[in-house]
Write a structure and sequence with these properties.
Blueprint: H1 2-19, E1 54-59, E2 65-69, H2 82-92, E3 98-100, H3 103-107, E4 123-125, H4 126-135, H5 139-150, H6 153-167, H7 189-199, H8 203-209, E5 213-216, E6 226-229, E7 246-254, E8 258-267, E9 270-279, H9 282-299, E10 300-305, E11 308-313, E12 322-328, E13 331-338, E14 341-349, H10 361-381, H11 405-409, H12 417-447
Antiparallel strand pairs: 1-2, 1-9, 3-4, 5-6, 7-8, 8-9, 10-11, 12-13, 13-14
Helix pairs in contact: 2-4, 2-5, 4-5, 5-6
Length: 448
């Protein structure tokens, strides 16, 4: 009996390895094709047909999608993965840190993948590393950044997946820091747009992606300077595909991923992020992204509402939107819908200041007069008129509420008609006082 118990225990112990839950990953269906879901919104401007398998166009301010073709469908990201790698690097390391290359980095250095020829034991600053990562798309640098920042490469990968979840990505799983082929390394166009949107909030990230050319000075094991230049066609000013206002982005390619592209463009009328995945080649991805940006700037306008903004088709009256409200602590959360489609959110404070008690009737009268004057001012300057925004090609969205004098002086704000009228009247009063003073002075002189 004792032998049977020992044997049973051994079998169960061995079986525990098989009984341990195995992490499962989603499958990427490269043969599926998708419709443009935003074209099904009644009254929404029809979006362009793109050749990429999937693609989205996101407003960077609100996170609203203006265009969605299979935005939540899985595809392989390839080197656009490095957007997340760069974000974690600038969030968790100093650019002055010195990084020594180990076997981890050198392992990913092959003739058919992007690299800058780093050597075992070579030392380079983190600043040089992040520029090599993004401009040259150096895979060995991506792996070395992962090991340096995370302590181990796997810990950094865990950080990538945790950060993606924090950002709101629901269909992304990273298996490495570079985007090299792996069946368990996938994302979606919407998730990659969310990652880019989050990264753009970081000043250092913006400075790095806005640099078209960077030179790595000689290192302890390389006597030659290495000059890197962007290979993003929409960002390179010398390219025939250059897009005005492009502030940077990332290209990617593997056989299974096809050509992937993330691009951000900023103009007076707004900042947008385009993501296209699995195009036949880079030229098609660029053409698709260009069409998406043109679609945004030609068909949509951003208007302010109390506490926030909405992004709506040109010619749409804000008053025609459906507004849902719900309490949010001391604020009221307002969701604005174009039909059934969310186009913006706003948080409005519900707290009202406690009035100070008046000391006498004279002060009560003065307060009432000031309140009436304030109401008249709002009536004359159009404050709170949500439909007063202009849809002209390069006009900025008008601000609601009162502008500070400092902003006016600095040219940050413009005076409305009511404010101009008050200033003119004040100037006229001062001029009249000056004239009367001069006349009185002359009369006194004559009497003498």
């Amino acid at each position: 009996m004792k032998k049977w118990k020992q044997l049973l225990a051994a079998v169960l112990s061995a079986g525990m390895i098989c009984l341990t839950p195995v992490q499962t990953f989603a499958a990427v269906d490269l043969n599926a094709r998708y419709e443009i879901s935003t074209n099904q919104i009644s009254g929404w401007p029809a979006g362009p047909e793109i050749t990429s398998d999937t693609g989205v166009l996101m407003d960077a301010d609100t996170g609203i999608l203006l265009y969605n073709k299979g935005g939540d469908e899985l595809r392989y990201p390839a080197s656009i993965t490095k957007i997340m790698t760069l974000l974690l690097a600038v969030e968790n390391a100093s650019l002055d840190d010195q990084v020594t290359f180990t076997e981890t980095g050198i392992r990913d250095e092959t003739w058919d993948s992007g690299n800058i020829g780093m050597k075992l034991g070579e030392v380079m600053s983190m600043r040089d590393c992040v520029y090599a990562l993004f401009i040259k798309s150096a895979n060995e640098v991506a792996a070395q950044i992962a090991e340096y920042v995370g302590g181990t490469e796997q810990n950094f990968i865990d950080m990538m997946n945790q950060r993606a979840a924090e950002i709101g990505c629901t269909n992304t799983h990273f298996a490495n820091a570079s985007g090299l082929p792996d069946a368990n390394h996938y994302s979606t166009a919407r998730d990659m747009a969310l990652i880019m949107r989050e990264a753009l909030k970081n000043k250092t990230f913006r400075e790095i992606i806005a640099t078209p050319t960077y030179t790595i000075q000689p290192t302890n094991m390389n006597s030659e300077a290495r000059t890197l230049h962007t290979h993003h066609p929409m960002f390179a000013e010398e390219s025939t595909y250059y897009y005005k206002g492009c502030i940077g982005g990332k290209t990617g390619f593997t056989n299974d991923a096809g050509s992937t592209l993330v691009t951000a463009v900023k103009r007076k009328k707004g900042t947008y992020i385009a993501v296209t995945m699995k195009a036949a080649e880079l030229g098609y991805a660029v053409a698709d992204s260009t069409a998406l940006f043109d679609y945004a700037y030609q068909n949509f306008t951003k208007k302010k509402v109390e506490g926030g903004k909405v992004l709506i088709p040109k010619g749409t009256d804000v008053d025609s939107l459906t507004v849902n409200t719900e309490p949010d602590g001391e604020n009221e959360l307002r969701s604005y819908y174009f039909g059934d489609y969310l186009v913006g959110m706003a948080s409005v404070s519900l707290a009202t200041p406690t009035p100070e008690p008046a000391s006498d009737d004279a002060e009560d009268g003065q307060g009432a007069a000031e309140e009436k004057s304030s109401d008249d001012q709002k009536s004359s300057d159009g404050s709170g008129d949500l439909s007063a925004d202009s849809d002209s090609q390069d006009s900025e969205t008008q601000e609601t509420g009162e502008d500070s004098l400092t902003d006016v002086i600095n040219g940050k704000k413009s005076l409305n008609s009511g404010e101009i009228f008050l200033l003119v009247m004040a100037a006229a009063d001062l001029l009249l006082i000056l004239i009367l003073t001069v006349i009185l002075a002359k009369k006194k002189k004559r009497r003498r």
